[in-house]
Amino acid sequence: MGEKDLSQKTLEDYNDVFADIVNGCLFDGDDVIYEYELEQEAQESVYKAEGKLREQRRDVVKLWRRNQIRLALIGLENQLEIDRYMPIRIMSYDAANYREQLNKQMFVDETTGRQVLKSNPEPICPVLTLVLYFGKIPWKKYRTLLETVNATPELKPFPSDYKINVVEVAFLTQDQISRFKSDFRIVADYFVQTRTNKDYIPTPQTMKHVHEVLQLLSVFAGDNRYEEAFNQLPKGGDITMCEVLDKIEARGELNAFYKLIKKGRLTIEEAAQDIGMSINELLENFKKLNLAL
């Protein structure tokens, strides 16, 4: 499993983030789904191909249950690139979840050895999937099954179509971003800004899952300074992306002074005076950054 996949799933698997993503994308940010109503579901399903059993794995899937009533199975699938066969993949995932529900309503009749429906089956709940697309090229095509298959004009009216729900994270408007309340709002804002601007200007929103957010940004930005900044942050208390960038900037300044000292262009005493620290404080900060003099 790729590092980017893992970083996304770790954050999205938290119930508060998962509920917020669904509420923000489907219900205009209204609190329709609550985190305490979500239950973890198996991400794996099995299908048969070429005479062999094969496994397919969803990114994140949860059951939405209220007052013991199963309301929906909801999946999140992450994409970094446009996949023309995404409708087929999503259709396969959703069908597997429907089949699993159906199987739970069946039992084997001891007399006939056949599977029959229970006398009081539990209602089948709907299955829906959101494709969270983090790319910087608009996803203009391949949102329906018929866009992916080569059907002649004569045949096109007859096959059943299948639509997927693609959320283009980097193309969200500011109004759409404001519908999110969890840490996903920071993530969405980051992707939108890095697509449209050269500089990322963070909001003062505090983070609940600090390490998971910084891990995701570190991986996607290709810049390990985000995750390294986590080790420099105070433990406990409210942390914002403003503080993270301050730590990154301070680290960059310390690195610059360190290089000047190593090259003999600056003494440790001069560096400490310029940066506004005592010599011991400066050496301690170098030590934290694994910069040995």
Overall mean pLDDT: 82
Number of strands: 9
Largest sheet: 5 strands, mixed
Ends: how far apart? 39 Å
Radius of gyration, rounded?
25 Å
Structural class: alpha/beta
Helix content: 25-40%
Strand order of the largest sheet: 1-4-5-8-9
Run of helices and strands: HHEEEEEHEEEEHHHHHHH
**Number of H- or I-type helical stretches:** 10
- Total individual domains: 2
| Low-confidence parts | 45-54
General form: elongated
Outline the structure in words:
The two termini are about 40 Å apart. This protein has helices at about 5-10, 15-25, 85-105, 175, 185-195, 210-220, 225-230, 240-260, 270-275, 280-290; strands at about 40, 45-50, 50-55, 60-65, 70-80, 105-110, 115, 125-135, 165-170. Helix content is about 40%, strand content about 15%. Helix 1 (about 5-10) packs antiparallel against helix 6. The strands form three sheets. It has a five-stranded mixed beta sheet, with helices on both faces. Strand 6 and strand 7 (about 115) form a beta hairpin. The protein is built from ten helices and nine strands. The protein has two domains: about 5-200, no CATH class; about 205-293, no CATH class. It is elongated and about 90 Å long. With about 290 residues, it is α/β, with parallel strands linked by helices.
Task: Give a summary of the structure in a few sentences.
Helices cover 40% and strands 17% of the residues.
List the helices and strands and how they pair.
Elements: H1 3-12, H2 15-26, E1 38-40, E2 44-49, E3 52-57, E4 60-66, E5 69-79, H3 86-104, E6 106-108, E7 115-117, E8 127-133, E9 165-168, H4 174-177, H5 184-196, H6 210-221, H7 225-230, H8 241-262, H9 268-275, H10 279-288
Parallel strand pairs: 5-8, 8-9
Antiparallel strand pairs: 1-4, 2-3, 4-5, 6-7
